[in-house]
Amino acid sequence: MYRKVSQLKFEDFIFPYGELNPDNEWVKMANLIPWDTVEREYAKQFVDNGHPAHSARIALGALIIKQKLKCSDEWVVRHVSENPYLQYFLGMKEYGSSCPFGASTMVEFRKRFPPESMAAILEASIPKEEKQEDYDDTDGGQPPAEQNGTDAKESEKPKNKGTLIMDATCCPADIAFPQDFQLLNHAREILEQTIRDVCKEHGWRMPRTYCEKARQDYLNLSKSKKRTEKAIRKCIRKQLGYIRRDLGYIIGFIRDKGLKLDQAVYDLLNVLTTLYEQQLYMFENRTHSVPNKIVSIRQYWVRPIVRGKAHANTEFGAKVHISMVDGYARIERLSFEAFNEVGDFYNAIEGYRKNYGYYPERVLVDKIYRNRQTIAWCKERGIQITGPALGRPPKDKEITKEAKKQEYQDICDRNIVESEFGVGKRAYGLNRIMAHLPETSFCVIGVALLCMNLAKRLRSLCFDLFSLWLKKWFLRVRYSGRFLKMGWLRSTLYIGKAACIAAFSSRCPMSGFLPFSVPVLCAYRAYIS
To answer: pTM score, two decimals?
Structure first.
């Protein structure tokens, strides 16, 4: 069962060895997480009886700590027991020398946040803007219903605003690169060990499995420097024969001697049987692809994802499709199956309209999203999509030049989603998902995206504080009358020089932005002019 816990305030945390710094990153991050949404989604995973579980703040906070520090479950427990800021982040009331959970409990935490819950938490972590009104004061203060003609119809329709970016990537799983003969050898070893365990448990005579000969046939190919196609097919043919014999032994035990196995063993035998059928089909038809191909015995749900990248044409893991608005990511679909991103194109745009009250002005996507249906659909709603228009190019060269310029600008603006994937794979562990269950793998990906959204909000808050101070300083300087008669260039240089002097003084609360003072001030000068 789960009992809702009131959220801890910074002033209520008891630290007997001094005072905590309110500007610490973990303290600020704790204020940005939508704990009410986390509590609501976390409570859905429990029933109304049993021992009370750990709080939602401890569960999600521990996962965020693991993702931010890029450490193992054991080291998360050590860090929490030593760091008071992490204990406050987890909602503990006072500092203690022990962690409230063990390393094995981290697996249960990951199971309690399914993809639907992580999507809801991601949505709640994104700052919302007020929805656009259908009319404003420039129309004389009259609502759209009181206007006449086509102007009333046009005013009722919200104007498109903003930019929506969509893309997909693969988060590789923690498996070895799959090769057919290695998969068959692994399956053969599992079957041989199962036969040994069954015969030893029931005192039956061990059948002949030729395990040493089968091992030698595998090593002859595995240790060879040049693996020819003929040698690979010969090894696969022999391994298929060994597996067929071992499966026959186990089926005979079940049919003739009434052998009863555990459910986990039955599930494993089903995976091995499916693997044998797939490999036999590919061997007989001389092909390397088959529907729902198994590439790992222990993680049999992983599928090959063809991405066409330079370093790897095919990756093996979960495919995640995200949409980004103002640098914040949302999950559109997350699956181990290879799906087409175009299927989520319309839902993502309609979701944007549901969140903000209007359609986006631009949709920046890859070429795979562009077809006649999506282009026509966007044209009907006044949405600009990345890429040139279909058909012959216009005869007017100026129009063609402007279209190419806009296409180049769209491609440059779309790079933010590529950088988001790069940050996630380098800094938040999306380059190799170490979780070995499908539900825990989805949770790890969702937590990584949540950490990136929180990092974006922290940067935005820092910039907003600097902008607020900068705006007050500008207003004071602008209306002082000192440079009203100056030209644009002279006044801009004057402001930049004065800002640098002010930044070096103690009156500037954010002296860490000194290298960026002049360009930011110049941009602000253009904005307020």
So the answer is: 0.82
